[in-house]
Specification:
It contains eleven helices and 19 strands. The chain is an alpha+beta fold and 476 residues long. It has three domains: 86 residues, Phosphorylase Kinase, domain 1 (2-Layer Sandwich), CATH 3.30.200; 178 residues, Transferase(Phosphotransferase), domain 1, CATH 1.10.510.10; 168 residues, Immunoglobulin-like (Sandwich), CATH 2.60.40.10. Strands 10, 11, 14, 15, 16, 18 and 19 form a seven-stranded antiparallel β-sheet that branches. Strand 14 and strand 15 form a beta hairpin. Helix 3 runs antiparallel to helix 9 and helix 8 runs antiparallel to helix 9. The N terminus is likely disordered.
Length: 476
C-alpha cells in the first residue's frame, strides 16, 4: 500500500516540471518526486560536490513558499549529524521555492527495505539511538516533525541515517492540523486529523524501526489492510502485534511495544528516554551501545548501584546479564574481568561522588555530572537554550513497611517544573518507564533484595531535562 499524506490527498497530479537553472549549479538528474515538490541532483560548481535541491511544483504560491521557508529555517536552526544538512534556499527565476540539501547517496530506508529486505536487529538499534537523539534535539528546540517514516530517513555519504523533510514540522505547542502519513501516525493524530506532539513523533520513530525489522509499517504488517480506511480502523482499534522474526529478541520487542502504545501517556516520556531503552537493549544483547549525541546529555546510560557494603569501603558486586548460550567457564572469566574494571572505576570515579544523605540507610550517586557538585551547582554544559538543567539534590529514601518513600530537592526551582522518576531494577537499568510528579517525593513498593533504588530528573516546562539523572538507593 502506498503511503498517503493527509495534507496532500485529493490534489490533481501536475506535469513534470522543468529542472530550474540555478547559478553556480549544474543539473545532474532527478532523485525523487512528490505531490508538492521534485528533488533534483545538482553539482555545485565551486566545490564540485553533489547536492540535492528540492523544488516546489507550484509557481508564486505563498503557501508553498511559507512551507519551504519553514522547512529550511527549522532544519538549519539545530544542526545534528542525524538531521539532513541545509546549505541554502531561494526562489527560482520562474517563481518556484527551493531548498539546497546535503546529498544522501544511500537513498532512503524505504528504498533499502524494498531492495534488500528487512534490516538486522543490531543495525536497527544503532539507527534508533541516532535518530532518537536527533528527534530529542528537535523537541528540545520546541519543534515536532510530525511525519517520521521510512521514506524520510535518508542515508548520508558517511553512512549515517538522517531525518529529512521537516516540511510539516511545527512548534511543539502548536496543535493545529498540519498533515501526517496514516501508516506511521498514532491513534491520537488520526483521531484529531493531524494534531500531535513529541510523543507522537516517538510513536512514528518506533513505527519506522518496526518497519526496518518487519519490512512494513506495524499495522500493514500485522493486518494487511486492503484500503486506507481499513488501515486507519486497525490503528484506531487493534493492538500492535510482535514482529514474527525469531532473531528479534523479546527485549527489542518490548521497547518497540512501549513506544507504540495507543495511549501517549504509556509511551516513553521523551525521545532521549526512548534512546536509553534502545541502548539498554544493545548492552543486554551485544555488550555495547551507540552513544546519544545531544549536547548536555550523557552519551551512555548511568549504570551504578551502591550497596551498604560499598558505603563502608567495599567494592560493589554487580554483573551484566550474559546470553544464555555462553558456557559457564566463559561467563566466569568475563565476570571476573568486569568486576576488576568496576573496582578500578569505582575507586577512581564513583567514590568521590558519593554523598551520604540525612537518612542513615540511603546512599546517593550522581555519576557523570560534568563537574557539578551534589550541593546543586550547575555544570557549565549548556544546550543552546540556557544553563543546563541541574540534577535533583538532597536525595534520601527510607523503608516504611512494604514500601519506600524517597524525597529530594530542586536546586533551581522554576515555574512549571516537574520530576521524571523511575525505579531501577537490580542497579542495572530502569525497570519502569519514567513517570511524572509535581512533588519532590514519591512512594514506591520495595524491591526484592537488600535495596530499592530510583533515578530522578528535573523536567522544565519546555521539556528540557537534567543532563544526568540523580540516583538514590534506600537500604534495608
Amino acid at each position: 500500500m502506498p503511503n498517503v499524506t493527509a495534507h496532500t490527498a485529493g490534489r490533481k497530479p501536475t506535469a513534470t516540471p522543468t529542472p530550474p537553472r540555478l547559478k553556480g549549479y549544474r543539473y545532474v538528474g532527478v532523485i525523487g518526486k512528490g505531490s508538492t515538490a521534485y528533488v533534483y541532483r545538482y553539482r555545485q560548481e565551486a566545490t564540485e560536490r553533489d547536492v540535492a535541491i528540492k523544488v516546489s511544483n507550484t509557481h508564486l504560491d505563498p503557501k508553498s513558499g511559507a512551507r519551504f521557508s519553514t522547512e529550511a529555517t527549522v532544519m538549519a536552526s539545530f544542526p545534528h549529524p542525524n538531521i539532513l544538512t541545509v546549505y541554502g534556499a531561494g526562489i527560482t527565476g520562474d517563481g518556484r521555492s527551493y531548498i539546497i540539501f546535503e546529498y544522501a547517496p544511500g537513498g532512503s530506508v524505504k528504498d533499502i527495505i524494498a531492495k534488500q529486505g528487512a534490516y538486522p536487529v543490531d543495525k536497527t538499534l544503532d539507527y534508533g539511538v541516532q535518530l532518537a537523539s536527533a528527534l530529542y534535539l528537535a523537541h528540545r528546540n520546541r519543534i515536532v516533525h510530525r511525519d517520521i517514516k521510512t521514506s524520510n530517513i535518508l542515508i548520508t555519504a558517511q553512512g549515517l541515517p538522517a531525518i529529512a523533510d521537516f516540511g510539516i514540522a511545527t512548534s511543539l505547542y502548536d496543535h493545529r492540523s498540519t498533515g501526517y502519513s496514516p501508516p506511521w501516525a498514532p491513534p491520537e493524530v488520526l483521531a484529531s486529523n493531524g494534531s500531535g506532539d513529541d510523543r507522537s513523533d516517538i510513536y512514528s520513530l518506533a513505527a519506522t524501526l518496526y518497519a526496518m525489522l518487519a519490512g512494513k509499517s506495524p499495522f500493514e504488517y500485522a493486518y494487511a489492510p486492503r484500503s486506507l480506511d481499513e488501515l486507519v480502523e486497525c490503528i484506531m482499534h487493534k493492538p500492535v502485534l510482535p514482529i514474527n522474526r525469531p532473531d528479534v529478541p523479546n527485549a527489542v520487542q518490548q521497547v518497540l511495544m512501549k513506544a507504540l502504545s495507543a495511549d501517549p501517556a504509556d509511551r516513553y516520556f521523551t525521545a532521549v528516554e526512548f534512546a536509553r531503552a534502545l541502548q539498554d537493549a544493545q548492552i543486554q544483547l551485544y555488550g555495547h551501545a551507540t552513544p546519544v549525541t545531544v549536547q548536555g546529555i550523557e552519551p551512555y546510560p548511568a549504570r551504578v548501584a551502591i550497596a551498604p557494603a560499598a558505603v563502608q569501603g567495599n567494592l560493589p558486586t554487580a554483573q551484566a546479564p550474559a546470553p544464555k548460550h555462553r558456557k559457564p567457564l566463559i561467563i566466569t572469566a568475563v565476570v571476573a574481568a568486569v568486576l576488576a574494571v568496576v573496582g578500578i572505576v569505582f575507586a577512581a570515579v564513583i567514590m568521590p561522588n558519593i554523598d551520604r544523605s540525612q537518612h542513615t540507610t540511603a546512599a546517593v550517586v550522581n555519576p557523570g555530572m560534568n563537574g557539578a557538585t551534589s550541593d546543586g551547582e550547575d555544570s557549565d554544559v549548556t544546550d543552546g537554550g540556557g544553563t543546563a538543567v541541574p540534577s535533583p539534590v538532597e536525595l534520601s529514601g527510607a523503608y516504611a513497611g512494604d514500601g519506600v518513600k524517597f524525597t529530594w530537592s530542586n536546586p533551581d526551582p522554576q515555574d512549571g517544573d516537574k520530576y521524571a522518576w523511575s525505579v531501577i531494577n537490580n542497579g542495572d537499568s530502569a525497570s519502569t518507564g519514567a513517570q511524572l510528579t509535581d512533588d519532590t517525593s514519591v512512594s514506591v513498593p520495595a524491591s526484592d533484595g537488600a535495596q530499592t533504588c530510583i533515578q530522578v530528573s528535573i523536567v522544565r516546562q519546555d521539556r528540557r531535562m537534567s543532563s544526568t539523572p540523580a540516583t538514590v538507593c534506600a537500604v534495608k
